[in-house]
Amino acid sequence: MSKPTVPIPAATKLRAMLAEKDKVVVAPGVYDGLTTRIALETGFDCLYMTGAGTTMSRLGMADLGIATLNDMVQNAGMIASIDRSVPVIADADTGYGGPLMVGRTTAQYMQAGVAALHIEDQVQTKRCGHLKNKELVDEDVYVARIRAAANMRAASAGDIVIIARTDALASLGYDAAVSRLKKAIAAGADVAFLEAITSEEQARRVCQELSPTPVLLNMVAGGMTANISVQKAKEIGFKIIIYPILSMGPMYKAVKDAAKELKETGIVERSAGADVSAKQLFELCGLNEAVEFDIAAGGSLYAKGV
Fold it and tell me: What top-level branch of life does the organism fall under (predicted)?
């Protein structure tokens, strides 16, 4: 009997993708098993676990630093487990504490099979990067967070791509924000993330100044960064683009329309998705594979079909 193929670790795969000269990694935001399955079915080769989506879907609350390490790592691990061949980039907020806690966060994300995490320089009671009046920690505190993540990675069996995010652009200005990123890279970060870029000029400049370190672009619908196409972002020099609320906006509109139709008419037949059956959704989420697995193991519960 041939030995099973050993899967390529998620971080290794993401590093290879970043090393491809003409590739830009496009990662749609997902926040649960269903949105993950949809993104995988569509053919994306990398996913992004959104912190905002995790907070809203698991807690029903706005992205104001309420989610804990346990909330985030459990969700990230579930998403990463659905298809180990597709790397998952996950929000890790501020790292959830001082250096010891950041180290613990990094270790748990690695154990969960996450390919990359990003850590930012906001205070613990953070808020979404595209909201106003964000408060920052001192630069040395931020750099210590990144160094703690890098040190834990070095001391562990495994790998994870460390993404350094700064929210300093709005309050401290471009030069100070890029200075923070440069120091984070020196402390062990693999990718730079300048949050809430406000112009194409800034976008080009940060990619050039931080080269050859890959730079990530955050595309938040309705946020502070103007909508940039994948092709344009690639031409500017970005290596990763994440779309944190890609799943949430369409879901909100479609579910609200269906709920409104049911409330007003007593039936759902015109709203988007009204013709999608429960079995179709089950099949999206691995129904056929589960049945095949059960039968192959000698089970009989599904032998006559489902």
Answer: Eukaryota
Decide: 125 and 65 in contact? Cβ < 8 Å.
yes
Same domain? For 34 and 140 the reply is yes
Q: Which pLDDT belongs to residue 130?
A: 65
> Do residues 90 and 182 share a domain?
yes
**Residue 273: its pLDDT value, please?**
87
Distance CA 168, CA 172 (A): 5
Rg (CA), the chain: 21
Residues 165 and 291 reside in one and the same domain: no
Q: Using 70 as the pLDDT threshold, list the residues of the chain that sit under it.
A: 1-6, 127-133
Q: Which two tokens stand for residue 24?
A: 């830009």
Q: Which domain holds residue 265?
A: 252-296
Nearest CA among 217, 175, 214, 220 for reference residue 200: 217
Give the pLDDT score at 306: 85
Report helix, strand or coil for 16. Answer: helix
Q: How far apart are CA 6 and CA 96, in angstroms?
A: 33
pLDDT, residue 133, reads 64
Is 173 part of any domain? yes
Q: Is the dihedral of CA 222, 228, 230, 233 positive or negative?
A: negative
- For residue 235, how many other CB atoms are within 10 A of its CB? 12
Q: Which amino acid is located at 18 in the chain?
A: L
* CA gap 275, 226 in Å, rounded: 35
